[in-house]
């Protein structure tokens, strides 16, 4: 695509992947994505910030050729291949270019891409002069790999953040901030940043000292109102007080319990979101967990264990570590159930308190549903609604 000017001497040179529908064979991308890179042309040198996914290499190289760019520096803010994968081709065209990154990033580049080059490690706070433009590097580890850093263009106040503050949105209006972009940014946060919420908080504090006029991430649109996304991140890292019911059902018995719990919680003015994990993509489920303090796991029994769809969902919960404080287990079984003990094993990474389980043999009777009502009252009580 044609480069887009975003400030004096600063150009968006990203590639847009309109049709991609999954990322890492895990994350659903209902709106596609983009792999953003930026060319910064100073009076004495030019730097390219990040590259693109290898499959989109030709598009980036064509854009740079049309710009007749001479690149002196390639800034690699994060070594994962969707941002670094075209560096080998870039070094063939610009063999004199110096590749800059944090020490872990340089190590990753050598290992992931199997390349050797004119690499230079940068330190936290180090600056790079391009003549009339100055880049300042701030090391921001674990958003979301140990190698990550952001780059601040001092004269324009533009903060280039790679995955930090990103969103999976393919749009031709890359310089516009879509009204609903926070929903996609939250979905992105749930998958990518949630396991590292403490480090996200630390890095938010670190960059809060900068006067930022614009945030230029490496996925999704440029964000012209930085406070929108920075305030959202501050809220997401703080958790919330919602209830998420992760459920599936085989013959309807578990659904009866889920519907009763949902109805009762709503009567009690408790925010609740039931998600049938067998019918929704994981992104919807995980996004809801960003604001959840209570997770209810509701599953039928399959060979004494939770339904595979529930087990798969809990595997992700255990890995992504949402801010859940309480877990409750519900379900229906035929001849035997180990669901409660299995759920505890599947969520072994979470530091949570378990509420009393409601497990029912067969279709729940009214006395079973009364126990569901009691669970609802307990949930209301523990979170102080």
TrEMBL record:
Residues 243-385 form the Flavodoxin-like domain. It comes from the Archaea. This is FprA family A-type flavoprotein. GO terms for molecular function: electron transfer activity; FMN binding; metal ion binding; oxidoreductase activity. SUPFAM superfamilies: Flavoproteins, Metallo-hydrolase/oxidoreductase. PANTHER family: ANAEROBIC NITRIC OXIDE REDUCTASE FLAVORUBREDOXIN. InterPro entries: Flavodoxin/NO_synth (IPR008254), Flavoprotein-like_sf (IPR029039), Metallo-B-lactamas (IPR001279), ODP_dom (IPR045761), RibonucZ/Hydroxyglut_hydro (IPR036866), Rubredoxin-O_OxRdtase (IPR016440). It comes from Methanothermobacter thermautotrophicus (Methanobacterium thermoformicicum). Pfam families: ODP.
